[in-house]
Amino acid sequence: MPRSLEIQMNSFPIAGTFTIARGAKTSADVITCILTENGRRGWGECVPYRRYGETMESVAAQIESARPLIEQGISGEELLSALPPGAARNAVDCAIWDLEAKLGGKSVAERIGLASAKPLTTAYTISLDEPEVMTAQARKYSARALLKVKVGTGDDESRIRAVRQAAPDSTIILDANEGWPEETLEHHLRIASEMNIALVEQPLPAGRDEMLAGIARPVLVCADESVHHTGDLASLRDRYDAINIKLDKTGGLTEAIVMKREAQRLGFQIMLGCMVGTSLAMAPAVLLAQDAEFVDLDGPLLLARDREGGLRYTASLVWPPETSLWG
């Protein structure tokens, strides 16, 4: 039977509100791509992101525009030139990987050279709020090995100090989401160093981050919004120490594998990150993250409900996906 494509729009409520420097959200709105062939089904999920000019409608339309090629059996490598990097290509690419694993009887882990996949320590995200609220959240989750703390205001010193005091034993990542003004950048980096912060993510706006090349960086600085695909890497070597690979930015696992390999060759440390989505979106990233220095795949933990048969999370760990979920 020929390959068929189904596009679904799904919404999963967030437990409470997820707040970053750019705003707040109360649901994870995702697009699910389902490919069917010979009675087997391959699944992929993406999260359209307004910061990158994406909407649910625009991403669904992008996938629809490639329907003839997808249903003709386009490969992941061929998809790289059929759709641009972004959420639409991610959903299709991951569905292709999943379908081909099920049709061929060889798991994605095997296909990408993993002898075995292990559980990984993942960050848990503390939303941006007033210092006292963030302190309470950090204290609540202080037993977790790795916390990712959303910052991104002109004066985050009190937040950084308060969270560190509330979670003295946790490794802490700060994510400014492009929100630190240039005039406070060096001050905030000094405070981060003083508070033994492991890494600061995207302190300055993408495209306006040249200042990072000309200052001392007392903590690791990681690119997120500044880096999308392999072609971005070379220009960032003088200003970042690490990069955040997200499949919704790269446009799927196929490009992400290439990007990770090149980033490691260039000397970057690797973070595997995510948008707020379900376990279906996290599953391929868990496999890619097996040797990453930082893992931030807590999307399902922020939801009021996940997909049925989702990933297993215990304490600070996320476990590799069962093939019944993906791969």
UniProtKB/TrEMBL annotation:
GO terms for molecular function: metal ion binding; racemase and epimerase activity, acting on amino acids and derivatives. Residues 131-222 form the Mandelate racemase/muconate lactonizing enzyme C-terminal domain. Mg(2+) binds at D175, E201, D224. The active site is at K150, K246. Binds 1 Mg(2+) ion per subunit. It is an enzyme of class 5 (isomerase). Its EC number is 5.1.1.-. The chain crosses the membrane at residues 266-289. Keywords: Isomerase, Magnesium, Membrane, Metal-binding, Transmembrane, Transmembrane helix. Its cofactor is Mg(2+). Pfam families: MR_MLE_C, MR_MLE_N. Belongs to the mandelate racemase/muconate lactonizing enzyme family. This is Dipeptide epimerase. It comes from Rhizobium gallicum bv. gallicum R602sp.
